[in-house]
Design goal:
- 2 copies of one chain form a homodimer.
- By secondary structure, chain A is an alpha/beta fold.
- The first copy, chain A, has 2 domains: 118 residues, Rossmann fold (3-Layer(aba) Sandwich), CATH 3.40.50.1000; 100 residues, 3-Layer(aba) Sandwich (Rossmann fold).
- The first copy, chain A, is 32% helix and 20% strand.
- Chain A has 8 helices and 14 strands.
- In chain A, the strands form 4 sheets. A 6-stranded parallel β-sheet of chain A has the order 5-4-1-12-13-14, sandwiched between helices.
- In chain A, strand 7, helix 4 and strand 8 form a beta-alpha-beta unit.
- The mean pLDDT of chain A is 93.
- At the A-B interface, helix 4, strand 10 and helix 5 of A face helix 4, strand 10 and helix 5 of B.
Chain lengths: 263, 241
């Protein structure tokens, strides 16, 4: 039986500063079913507090501990490894690392940090890695959409450091399996009891289905026609938007055992 | 292995092999004299991207090496050739000191990207400009893809990581003109009348000097000065690339 629903934020619940039409209401309906809801995102430059603020402004009823970001995942990994990270992250992401020691670093964490992506700082990171520091990538997006056009994401800079040192980064964000498993930590739910709803076929749906979740692809945000053909197996369901996904869940997935194969 | 032909040409790497920054490798000047007494063609080949041929010559003369400018073949030379062949206007991500080697090449309204070792230009804003040109279809030319190089204060990122970053971002492949590309070694022999099988390459970078040269049929001699000092044992196998 379905016990948990993971929901992507940007492109699924909202597009920049506008909510997807009907999404607030759909979320309310979803909560009326007895499922755990978690909001998952790869955003690297917004702390949980910032995300929460934006969502509340858009009248979504969400609490901070329901949000799981790739920054959260990075912090977990840093704590598990007991390392002191050099944080190549945006200033606005730093609150999510409060309490983590960063002096005399012996690890490198890379997020989206345009102001830090210059030779001198990258060189410092390079030298730490040569000394054996682990490289943790919040995610490896190649680029992202800004108001003034496309702009380099963190991926190219992670790749640069991997190339320079011949080591591989541990990527903590979507579509990594560990991201989805970590998102369920503390919920008491298994991947097989979970549905993921998102607009990025590879990173949201593909990633989730790879750990045994069902994936619902929504045609908002970065969705482009034909995306559903890019993963194998294809999405469990492709539908118009988040409200449609919620309708499907309420009508088909609550009272029966989840199907384990996409139709 | 087939019997080798007689040796006719020797390619010599510069930085790390003949000299380390502003100091000659001990005994190198004298060794070069002895090499010249044999009847071999000598060419000095380098991936240095931040020095024009004139600068290189000046430094080598100061260190009392007996070399002439037309014996020097650099990856900047190779890059300029390619830009001229393709008839493009490059955005030059190269050190200011390399610009003389591009004199006469139009660079306004660029429709190509040339990447060398340019620490001052390797920051987000400029890399983003290059990224957008590439998305518009501009070709990406890499002077070489060295992962790092030796500076006085330790190892430092080479141009390779930044070329790789742009390749990753755009899903396109750079045309690399420097070592260890085959074309670099073949271009270096142009005009000498010598074949790769009649050539030895001496250098300190296992993959770029020795591996690259052996891949076109030359013999490679790896010297333990310069770059090789800092490299792990596991990369000693230069092998096939």
């Amino acid at each position: 039986a379905l016990k948990a629903v993971l929901v992507d934020l940007s492109g699924t619940l909202h597009i920049e500063d506008a909510a997807v039409p009907g999404a607030q209401e759909a979320l309310k309906r979803l909560r009326s079913a007895s499922v755990v809801v978690r909001f998952v995102t790869n955003t690297t430059k917004e702390s949980k507090r910032d995300l929460l603020e934006r969502l509340k402004k858009l009248e979504f009823d969400i609490s901070e501990d329901e949000i799981f970001t790739s920054l959260t995942a990075a912090r977990s990994l840093v704590e598990q490894k007991q390392v002191r990270p050099m944080l190549l992250v945006d200033d606005r992401a730093l609150p999510d690392f409060n309490g983590i020691q960063t002096s005399d670093p012996n690890a490198v964490v890379v997020g989206l940090a345009p102001e830090r992506f210059h030779y001198q700082i990258l060189n410092q990171a390079f030298r730490l890695l040569l000394d054996g520091a682990p490289l943790i990538a919040i995610h490896k997006a190649r680029y992202y959409k800004r108001k003034d056009g496309l702009a380099l994401g963190p991926g190219p800079f992670v790749t640069a450091l991997e190339y320079a040192t011949d080591i591989k980064a541990t990527v903590v964000g979507k579509p990594e399996k560990t991201f989805f498993l970590e998102a369920l930590r503390g919920t008491g739910c298994e991947p097989e009891e979970t549905v993921m709803i998102g607009d990025d076929c590879r990173d949201d749906v593909g990633g989730a289905q790879n750990v045994g979740m069902l994936g619902i692809l929504v045609k908002t945000g970065k969705y482009r026609a034909g995306d559903e053909e890019k993963i194998n197996p294809p999405p469990y369901l492709t539908c118009e938007s988040f409200p449609h996904a919620v309708d499907h869940i309420l009508q088909h997935l609550l009272s029966t055992v989840c199907e384990s194969e996409a139709t």
